[in-house]
Amino acid sequence: MNPEAKPTPDASIGELMSQLSSQLSRLVRDEMQLAQKEIERSAKRAGIGAGLFGVAGILGLAGLASLIAASIAAVSLAVPVWAAALIVGAALFAAAGAAALLSKHQAEDVAPAAPFTVANIKKDVQKVKDARHDRS
Questions:
Q1: Is the CB of residue 32 less than 8 Å from the CB of residue 116?
Q2: Is 109 helix (H, G, I), strand (E, B) or coil?
Q3: CA within 20 to 30 Å of 83's CA: 57, 105, 114, 136, which one?
Q4: C-alpha–C-alpha distance, residues 47 and 41, integer Å
Q5: Helices 13-77 & 115-135 angle (0-180, nearest 10)
Q6: Could you tell me the CA-to-CA distances from 13 to 4, 7, 131, 132 in Å, in that order?
């Protein structure tokens, strides 16, 4: 039997139930595939944001190490070497801030999981309700 067949007025209850079963099965399968694709898209975007947040952490640690080195250089040598270390440390912190802002932007742009699937399911439920009321 063709799952796309339209019910006819002379179709038996068994035929109608068979059509309903196959169409419902296909509908659920299609909605699951759509949800999977939407979730994959959101997960990829969230992964990029998490990766950039990791970059911000690494650059922040490098900035801290440079500032520590600058402090040591300033105390032990009292020469212009410490000034160079402070400049490098400040530049690394600026880069960490930029990466953190990019990470925040990526995380905010993550869409809610499966919005199209939710909308389709609501529409399908409404159609079933409407069809049920039409037969009453």
A1: no
A2: coil
A3: 57
A4: 10
A5: 160
A6: 17, 10, 16, 15
Residues in Cβ contact with 27 at an 8 Å cutoff, skipping those fewer than 6 apart = 124
Report how far residue 50's alpha carbon sits from residue 99's, in angstroms, rounded to the nearest whole number.
Answer: 11
> Is the pLDDT score of 5 beyond 60?
no
In this predicted model, what pLDDT tens digit does every residue of 107-125 receive, in sequence order? 887 777 777 777 888 888 8
- What is the DSSP secondary structure assignment for residue 114, as one 8-state letter? -
CA distance 122 to 3: 22
User: What is the distance, to the nearest Å, from the Cα of residue 93 to the centroid of all Cα atoms in its chain?
Assistant: 28
List phi, psi (to 5°) of 40: -60, -45
Q: List the alpha helices (DSSP H) in 1-136.
A: 13-77, 81-108, 115-135
Q: What is the residue extent of each domain of the chain?
A: 13-111
State the Cα–Cα distance between residues 115 and 44, nearest whole angstrom.
16
pLDDT at residue 1, rounded to an integer: 45
**Average pLDDT of every residue of the chain:** 80
